[in-house]
Amino acid sequence: MQIKVMGIDIGKSTFHVVGLDEKGNIVLRKRFSRTQLLLHTANLPACLIGMEACCGAHHLGRALAAQGHQVRLMAGQYVRPFVQNNKNDFRDAEGISEAVQRPRMHFVPLKTDEQLDLQALHRVRDRLISQRTALINQIRGFLLDRGLAVPKGIAKMISLLPTILEDADANLSPRIREVLEELKQECADLNEQIEAMDQKIAATAKESPVCRRLLTVPGIGPIISTAIVAAIGNGATFNKGRSFAAWLGLVPRQWSTGGKTTLLGIGKRGNPYLRKLFILGAQSLMMHMSNSQRPYMQWLKQLAARAHRNVVVVALANKIARVAWAVLTKEEVYRAALAAC
User: Fold this and answer.
1) Residues of the chain with pLDDT > 90: what percent?
2) Burial code of 122-158, b = ≥16 C-beta within 10 A, e = fewer?
């Protein structure tokens, strides 16, 4: 019997597959290796294939799409309600095959190699920054144990640490001085690696026409522009800017019942890394608010007069995200008149 829908539960080296016919009956229930799976699907008529959007899904999805199949990726949280009874790999594959047929399901577009390359650069940079933050906190803790309190901030620590180590009157033993010297050198090495990653990302943004258009949006630099392209490509997944902002979690959560609408804090959904970058971009833009004549700055000043600063920052990040989506989908550079409120 011909397979119309197939659900694949992805593993590192084994893949559990469940195939359904046009009536929804299970006609295939088998485990494959990676090579066996591609050989098997190559001999099947074109069908709808669903998978969870996880590590390796984009590569496998492109390989299956090249064979003529219709491939759709879904977030794992949307598949979970379709998994019945006890959870196992075949149950997961069966739930995927059910979920992929839902007309209102949200799907994840397949990423290109270029997008995955950009994503890799950002993930390495984010890991290096996390390591540097942990290192700075450890140095601060060691100094605090000796009665030396250093102000917050990486720049403060980097500037003050050499002075502290050179101070012969500081309450530091020779052994802890040696440890701090090693940590200082490790921090310098991390700074060099982060700077190198920043240069690679900046060079990529300069070469990409899409990133160059995004760079014209206030509050967006090379880091944010390349992160947007890596995450959503051309933005066609979203039908409007508000949908993109909602996916980022930059709009209020809603908890409504009985005709009464209640708005809560921001949703914090979607890509947390990209949301963090938009908020940092909004904070940077707000620092220059008083010196700017951009059209939406009047709206921003009015909002700042009646709302908490954090609310204003998120609102500005929301606006930047919407403008970025418009620039991305319309394939035009930013024009201030279009962003006026």
Assistant:
1) 51
2) beebbebeeebeebbeebbeebeeeeeebeeeeeebb
